[in-house]
Sequence to fold (223 residues):
Amino acid sequence: DADVTQTPRNRITKTGKRIMLECSQTKGHDRMYWYRQDPGLGLRLIYYSFDVKDINKGEISDGYSVSRQAQAKFSLSLESAIPNQTALYFCATSDQSSYEQYFGPGTRLTVT
Amino acid sequence: EDQVTQSPEALRLQEGESSSLNCSYTVSGLRGLFWYRQDPGKGPEFLFTLYSAGEEKEKERLKATLTKKESFLHITAPKPEDSATYLCAVQAGGSNYKLTFGKGTLLTVNP
Fold:
Protein backbone atom coordinates (compact mmCIF):
# COMPACT_ATOMS: atom_id res chain seq x y z
CA ASP A 1 0.00 0.00 0.00
CA ALA A 2 1.13 3.53 -0.76
CA ASP A 3 2.56 5.52 2.15
CA VAL A 4 0.92 8.78 1.05
CA THR A 5 -2.52 8.66 -0.56
CA GLN A 6 -4.60 11.41 -2.08
CA THR A 7 -8.27 11.53 -2.97
CA PRO A 8 -9.71 12.18 -5.43
CA ARG A 9 -7.11 11.49 -8.12
CA ASN A 10 -8.99 13.51 -10.71
CA ARG A 11 -11.67 16.14 -10.28
CA ILE A 12 -13.50 18.45 -12.62
CA THR A 13 -15.51 21.22 -11.01
CA LYS A 14 -17.16 24.48 -11.95
CA THR A 15 -16.18 28.01 -11.06
CA GLY A 16 -17.50 29.02 -7.65
CA LYS A 17 -17.84 25.52 -6.26
CA ARG A 18 -16.26 24.46 -2.97
CA ILE A 19 -13.94 21.50 -3.23
CA MET A 20 -11.84 19.52 -0.79
CA LEU A 21 -8.75 17.46 -1.54
CA GLU A 22 -7.70 14.91 1.04
CA CYS A 23 -4.35 13.43 2.00
CA SER A 24 -3.57 10.51 4.31
CA GLN A 25 -0.22 9.05 5.26
CA THR A 26 0.99 5.93 7.00
CA LYS A 27 4.63 6.99 7.28
CA GLY A 28 4.18 8.27 10.82
CA HIS A 29 5.58 11.66 9.86
CA ASP A 30 4.75 14.79 11.80
CA ARG A 31 5.03 17.26 8.95
CA MET A 32 2.66 17.55 6.01
CA TYR A 33 2.60 19.88 3.02
CA TRP A 34 0.40 20.88 0.10
CA TYR A 35 1.94 21.89 -3.24
CA ARG A 36 0.60 22.78 -6.63
CA GLN A 37 2.42 22.10 -9.88
CA ASP A 38 1.85 24.08 -13.04
CA PRO A 39 3.60 23.61 -16.40
CA GLY A 40 6.62 25.90 -16.56
CA LEU A 41 6.33 27.01 -12.94
CA GLY A 42 7.47 24.00 -10.99
CA LEU A 43 6.23 22.99 -7.55
CA ARG A 44 5.02 25.75 -5.24
CA LEU A 45 4.12 25.44 -1.57
CA ILE A 46 0.54 26.29 -0.57
CA TYR A 47 0.38 25.36 3.14
CA TYR A 48 2.37 23.30 5.60
CA SER A 49 1.77 21.83 9.04
CA PHE A 50 4.33 20.63 11.56
CA ASP A 51 1.75 18.99 13.83
CA VAL A 52 -2.00 18.91 14.41
CA LYS A 53 -2.04 22.31 16.11
CA ASP A 54 0.37 24.01 13.72
CA ILE A 55 -0.76 25.41 10.34
CA ASN A 56 1.31 27.80 8.23
CA LYS A 57 0.89 29.60 4.95
CA GLY A 58 3.24 28.87 2.10
CA GLU A 59 4.11 31.09 -0.83
CA ILE A 60 0.73 30.88 -2.63
CA SER A 61 -1.98 30.40 0.03
CA ASP A 62 -4.54 32.93 -1.26
CA GLY A 63 -7.79 31.18 -2.23
CA TYR A 64 -6.95 28.04 -0.24
CA SER A 65 -7.49 26.79 3.30
CA VAL A 66 -6.36 23.63 5.09
CA SER A 67 -7.33 21.42 7.98
CA ARG A 68 -5.12 18.99 9.90
CA GLN A 69 -7.65 16.54 11.27
CA ALA A 70 -5.10 14.15 12.72
CA GLN A 71 -1.39 13.47 12.50
CA ALA A 72 -2.03 11.34 9.44
CA LYS A 73 -4.63 13.51 7.66
CA PHE A 74 -4.27 16.89 5.99
CA SER A 75 -6.92 18.32 3.69
CA LEU A 76 -6.86 21.26 1.29
CA SER A 77 -9.99 23.26 0.46
CA LEU A 78 -10.80 25.66 -2.31
CA GLU A 79 -13.70 27.70 -0.94
CA SER A 80 -14.73 29.11 -4.31
CA ALA A 81 -12.83 27.51 -7.16
CA ILE A 82 -11.61 29.62 -10.08
CA PRO A 83 -10.14 28.50 -13.42
CA ASN A 84 -6.57 29.54 -12.59
CA GLN A 85 -6.61 26.98 -9.77
CA THR A 86 -6.54 24.29 -12.44
CA ALA A 87 -3.34 22.39 -11.65
CA LEU A 88 -1.80 19.23 -10.24
CA TYR A 89 -1.95 19.18 -6.43
CA PHE A 90 0.47 17.16 -4.34
CA CYS A 91 0.57 16.31 -0.69
CA ALA A 92 3.94 15.57 0.90
CA THR A 93 5.22 14.47 4.28
CA SER A 94 8.49 14.63 6.15
CA ASP A 95 9.90 13.59 9.46
CA GLN A 96 11.22 16.26 11.82
CA SER A 97 14.57 14.49 12.03
CA SER A 98 15.29 14.57 8.28
CA TYR A 99 14.68 16.95 5.45
CA GLU A 100 13.46 14.70 2.66
CA GLN A 101 9.85 15.15 1.64
CA TYR A 102 7.82 12.23 0.30
CA PHE A 103 5.05 12.96 -2.16
CA GLY A 104 1.64 11.46 -2.82
CA PRO A 105 0.40 10.51 -6.30
CA GLY A 106 -1.34 13.83 -6.88
CA THR A 107 -4.79 15.15 -7.72
CA ARG A 108 -5.46 16.59 -11.14
CA LEU A 109 -7.98 19.41 -10.64
CA THR A 110 -9.75 21.14 -13.49
CA VAL A 111 -11.93 24.19 -12.84
CA THR A 112 -14.19 25.10 -15.74
CA GLU B 1 15.78 34.72 -2.54
CA ASP B 2 16.69 31.09 -3.13
CA GLN B 3 16.86 30.08 -6.76
CA VAL B 4 17.27 26.79 -8.62
CA THR B 5 17.94 26.55 -12.35
CA GLN B 6 17.98 23.22 -14.14
CA SER B 7 19.46 22.59 -17.55
CA PRO B 8 18.79 21.48 -20.13
CA GLU B 9 15.00 21.75 -20.07
CA ALA B 10 14.78 18.59 -22.16
CA LEU B 11 17.32 15.95 -23.12
CA ARG B 12 16.92 13.13 -25.57
CA LEU B 13 19.39 10.23 -25.43
CA GLN B 14 19.85 6.92 -27.14
CA GLU B 15 19.87 3.86 -24.91
CA GLY B 16 23.39 3.45 -23.53
CA GLU B 17 24.39 7.07 -24.20
CA SER B 18 25.63 8.52 -20.90
CA SER B 19 25.06 12.17 -20.02
CA SER B 20 24.56 14.62 -17.15
CA LEU B 21 21.82 16.93 -15.94
CA ASN B 22 22.72 20.19 -14.23
CA CYS B 23 21.19 21.97 -11.25
CA SER B 24 22.60 25.42 -10.43
CA TYR B 25 21.52 27.04 -7.20
CA THR B 26 21.81 30.17 -5.09
CA VAL B 27 20.84 29.80 -1.49
CA SER B 28 21.78 31.42 1.79
CA GLY B 29 23.53 28.54 3.44
CA LEU B 30 22.71 25.15 1.97
CA ARG B 31 21.08 22.70 4.34
CA GLY B 32 20.48 20.10 1.65
CA LEU B 33 20.05 19.52 -2.08
CA PHE B 34 17.50 16.97 -3.23
CA TRP B 35 16.96 15.07 -6.45
CA TYR B 36 13.56 13.66 -7.39
CA ARG B 37 12.26 11.66 -10.33
CA GLN B 38 8.75 12.35 -11.61
CA ASP B 39 6.88 10.15 -14.07
CA PRO B 40 3.95 11.64 -16.03
CA GLY B 41 0.83 11.98 -13.89
CA LYS B 42 2.63 10.83 -10.73
CA GLY B 43 4.14 12.41 -7.66
CA PRO B 44 7.86 13.15 -7.37
CA GLU B 45 9.84 10.15 -6.13
CA PHE B 46 12.76 10.90 -3.81
CA LEU B 47 16.18 9.87 -5.14
CA PHE B 48 19.03 11.54 -3.23
CA THR B 49 19.97 14.11 -0.62
CA LEU B 50 23.36 15.83 -0.76
CA TYR B 51 24.53 17.97 2.14
CA SER B 52 28.01 19.30 1.41
CA ALA B 53 30.34 20.05 -1.49
CA GLY B 54 32.22 17.00 -2.65
CA GLU B 55 29.53 14.57 -1.59
CA GLU B 56 28.37 11.90 -4.06
CA LYS B 57 25.47 9.45 -3.96
CA GLU B 58 24.74 6.55 -6.33
CA LYS B 59 21.71 4.45 -7.16
CA GLU B 60 21.79 2.01 -10.04
CA ARG B 61 22.64 4.04 -13.18
CA LEU B 62 22.37 7.40 -11.39
CA LYS B 63 25.06 9.32 -9.56
CA ALA B 64 24.53 12.73 -7.97
CA THR B 65 27.39 15.09 -7.15
CA LEU B 66 27.52 18.45 -5.41
CA THR B 67 29.73 21.54 -5.58
CA LYS B 68 29.25 24.89 -3.86
CA LYS B 69 27.21 26.24 -6.77
CA GLU B 70 25.74 23.28 -8.61
CA SER B 71 24.82 19.64 -8.63
CA PHE B 72 25.03 17.11 -11.43
CA LEU B 73 22.95 14.03 -11.96
CA HIS B 74 25.03 11.66 -14.06
CA ILE B 75 23.20 8.94 -15.94
CA THR B 76 25.38 6.05 -17.07
CA ALA B 77 24.22 3.79 -19.91
CA PRO B 78 20.58 4.87 -19.58
CA LYS B 79 17.65 2.62 -20.43
CA PRO B 80 14.21 3.63 -21.73
CA GLU B 81 12.78 3.15 -18.24
CA ASP B 82 14.97 6.02 -17.03
CA SER B 83 12.79 8.37 -19.07
CA ALA B 84 11.17 10.86 -16.66
CA THR B 85 11.38 14.43 -15.45
CA TYR B 86 14.17 14.93 -12.93
CA LEU B 87 13.64 17.64 -10.34
CA CYS B 88 16.21 19.37 -8.17
CA ALA B 89 15.33 21.20 -4.95
CA VAL B 90 17.31 23.05 -2.27
CA GLN B 91 16.69 23.77 1.37
CA ALA B 92 18.30 26.83 2.89
CA GLY B 93 20.16 26.70 6.14
CA GLY B 94 17.70 29.03 7.82
CA SER B 95 14.72 26.84 7.01
CA ASN B 96 13.71 23.48 8.38
CA TYR B 97 10.98 22.85 5.87
CA LYS B 98 10.99 25.01 2.74
CA LEU B 99 12.11 23.38 -0.49
CA THR B 100 12.75 25.54 -3.53
CA PHE B 101 12.30 23.48 -6.69
CA GLY B 102 13.71 23.88 -10.16
CA LYS B 103 11.48 23.42 -13.16
CA GLY B 104 12.99 20.07 -14.02
CA THR B 105 14.71 18.33 -16.92
CA LEU B 106 12.61 16.07 -19.11
CA LEU B 107 14.75 13.08 -20.04
CA THR B 108 13.76 10.80 -22.90
CA VAL B 109 15.78 7.66 -23.59
CA ASN B 110 15.10 6.05 -26.93
CA PRO B 111 15.63 2.30 -27.45
User: Anything to note?
Assistant: The two ends of chain B are 41 Å apart (CA to CA). The CA atoms of residues 6 and 103 of chain B lie 7 Å apart. Chain B is about 0% helix and 60% strand.
